[in-house]
Amino acid sequence: MTRDRDAGRDNADRAALTGLLADIRDRVLDAARLHPGHHVLDLGAGTGLLTHTAARAVAPTGSIIALDLSATALAQIRTDQATQIRPVVGDASHLPIATATIDRVVTRSVLIYLPDLPTALGEIARVLRPAGILSAFEPINARRHHNAHLDGLTANENEAIDGLRRHSSPAAGPMMAFDVAPLTTAALHAGFTAPTVHETTIIDRLTSHTQVDAYLHRRPHPGAHSPIDLITGHLGADTATRYTTAWHHALDQATDQAGITFTTPVLYLTSSLERRHTV
User: Is residue 28, in this structure, part of any structural domain at all?
Assistant: First the structure.
């Protein structure tokens, strides 16, 4: 997971990503208002970005369930008796957790991949105690855009490439359909109070040809092929070569040292459970 995320990044790029992830982690956990003794579910914990910091916040009497579909990712989470971290392989739509036993649910870039948000939010509501809090960060990838001018491709080819992106993996469909309204509707239906939603943007850039190549050969999300592998497999090597050339040309034509800019809308959502909801 982290290997795919870091593939092709230079030291400066890795440092910037590490700083961004730390900021996201801190905002999610601050909004959750963690206290010693809380029992926390880290939903989609991955390798433990939220887990370890949350564990320190709820120590010494609290606990963390780090739940993820990937046993390989969970194996990278540090556990010991003192921190009360329990890795669990599980599905957000069928949480293997008893009803009303969790004080806080925290999650980062997980809800976007779920094909059935109402069911997942219902499960989160089921395991939370009354007045328990959900704190989430999610990117809105359907509204992600860049300022690169890609020459050398026909309109039909660009449309086909956009279509491949929307169907690049089983998770791509839910991810591209994800937005604020479906999430807040699902939360309200599950029994949460009107969510507090803060929308902002994340800016990242490609400023070198090495970074362009890394972007084109990196998997955009778990289960997806890289852009070049996807285009090569469906549209042929010639189209993939011209696509690569177009990106490098776009960097050369960038009007300033900022290079190619990507803008991704993101949201931070916080809501509390005021009543017991049965799904």
Answer: yes
Counting the structural domains of the chain, the total is 1
pLDDT tens digits along 159-184: 999 999 888 888 899 999 999 999 99
pTM: 0.90
The range of the structural domain enclosing residue 147 comes to 2-272
Please report whether residue 38 resides in a domain: yes
Q: What is the CATH number of the domain that holds 31?
A: 3.40.50.150
DSSP track, the chain: -HHHHHTT--HHHHHHHHHHHHHHHHHHHHHHT--TT-EEEEET-TTTTTHHHHHHHHTTT-EEEEEES-HHHHTTS---TTTTEEEEE-BTTB--S-TT-EEEEEEES-GGG-S-HHHHHHHHHHHEEEEEEEEEEEE-GGG-EE-----S--HHHHHHHHHHHHTSSTTHHHHHH--HHHHHHHHHHHTBPSPEEEEEEEEEEE-SHHHHHHHHHS-SSTTPPPHHHHHHHHH-HHHHHHHHHHHHHHHHT-SSTT-EEEEEEEEEEEEEB-S----
Residue 162: CB atoms within 10 Å: 9
